[in-house]
Design brief:
This protein is mostly helical. It has eight helices and six strands, in the order E-H-H-H-H-E-E-H-H-H-E-E-E-H. The strands form two sheets. A three-stranded antiparallel β-sheet has the order 1-6-5, with no helix packed on it. A three-stranded antiparallel β-sheet has the order 2-3-4, covered by helices on one side. Helix 1 packs across helix 2 and helix 6 runs antiparallel to helix 7.
């Protein structure tokens, strides 16, 4: 079992564009998008995109599912049960609900986003390393030999989830990071944010140490 300490780029799985308009509120759009993804507040995003809040919620559910998949991969695990996957999703929702950011217009039409990265993973890095080392030692001693593959991954991930859940109340933030976000228009006259920028936002909402354990 290898604990990979880095956050894989998440496939956002959500439509991030809106209709053509003469006067476009760039900062309002970016705020609406991030609030929909991280806070689960779909009202402004639905107005910008012309979709219903129910549709926006479905997009976010798919995005959260992708986020859970990438969390599992980043932790070096295989597929757990639906129950454990749900625990991961709920954990991520709680972390994302605490995302801290500010969005302002730039004079050139771009948007400046200031993000205070959540430090939950970095702060508990040593505890996670200790847990994985101990789990690997037990695995080498065949402590989990009687388990099915799913039970094995459930046991492994539940330990990680429990560590992070136990420190949610202590969640704090790192020094702010500033991103310049360009809103582009495609060939159909729709405004959009490129995928690299979306990945940059995601990677700074929750900060992970780089490298492998």
């Amino acid at each position: 079992m290898k604990f990979k300490i880095y956050w894989l780029s998440l496939l956002l799985g959500i439509l991030v564009m809106t209709g053509c308009t003469r006067f476009f509120d760039s900062s309002g759009y970016v705020t609406a998008m991030t609030d929909a993804l991280y806070k689960g507040d779909y009202s402004a995003y639905a107005q910008f995109t012309g979709i219903s809040t129910a549709e926006a919620s479905q997009y976010r559910d798919q995005w959260l599912s992708n986020a859970a998949d990438n969390f599992i991969t980043a932790m070096g695990s295989g597929n757990p049960s639906d129950e454990v996957r749900s625990r991961i999703t709920e954990l991520l929702k709680k972390i994302f609900a605490n995302a801290r950011y500010e969005i302002n217009d730039e004079e050139n039409g771009d948007v400046q986003m200031t993000i205070w990265p959540v430090d939950l993973i970095i702060k508990n890095y040593d505890a996670l390393q200790t847990y994985v080392t101990d789990f690997n030692r037990k695995n080498d001693a065949f402590a989990f030999a009687s388990m099915s593959e799913e039970e094995f991954y459930d046991t492994y991930l539940e330990g990680i989830i429990t560590i992070l859940e136990s420190h949610l109340a202590e969640l704090s933030y790192l020094e702010p990071v500033q991103l310049n976000i360009s809103i582009c228009r495609d060939e159909n006259g729709l405004y959009a944010i490129d995928s690299k920028t979306l990945t940059d936002i995601q990677e700074n909402i929750i900060k992970w140490p780089e490298g492998d354990y």
